[in-house]
Amino acid sequence: MGSSEFEQAKAHLHVDCAQPPAITWQRKFDDEGKKVAMLSMTTDIFTVIPLIFKMLRLHVEGIAKNQVAVYDPLRKWMDNCYRGVPLGGLGSGSIGRSYRGYFQQFQIFPRIYEEKPVLANQFSAFVSHPGGKSYSTVLKLVCCYFCQARLFDAQNDEG
C-alpha cells in the first residue's frame, strides 16, 4: 500500500525540463512593473505627531509627580558602547575605563554616569544567588609595577 502511494506521488512530481510549467507568472520584457508609492516626509510626520505629543505629555506628567523617567526625550542621550561593561542585567549599571586604563567611568543608577577616579582604582563586585552562596571579586587595574621596574632597569643597563 505504501509503495503504490509513492508511485502515484512520483508520477505527479515528474517535471519535464524542456517544457515550461502550465501555470507560470508571465511578464513582458519591456514591462517596468508596478510603481512603488513613495510616502512623502509630510505624511510620515503627520503619522508620528500623535506619538510625540503623547510621549511629551507623559514626560511632563512624570516630572509633575516627581517621578524620574528612565528615558528623557529632552536630554541628549549619551549611551554608547564606550560607556563600559554591564554589571549584570538591565539597569544594573556598568564599569568603564579611561584611556589610560583606570576605572574612572561608572554607572550604578540609571541615567547617572560618574566620571571620576575610583579610590585605590578598584571596584568590588558582589554576586549573590537566591538561596545560594555569595561571591565577592575585586576588579582592579593590574598596574604592573614589576614590569615598570624591569623596564626602568633595562633602560639603565643600556646607558
From TrEMBL:
It comes from the Eukaryota. It holds the Pfam family Glyco_hydr_116N. This is Glycosyl-hydrolase family 116 N-terminal domain-containing protein. One of its GO terms (molecular function) is beta-glucosidase activity. Residues 84-140 form the Glycosyl-hydrolase family 116 N-terminal domain.
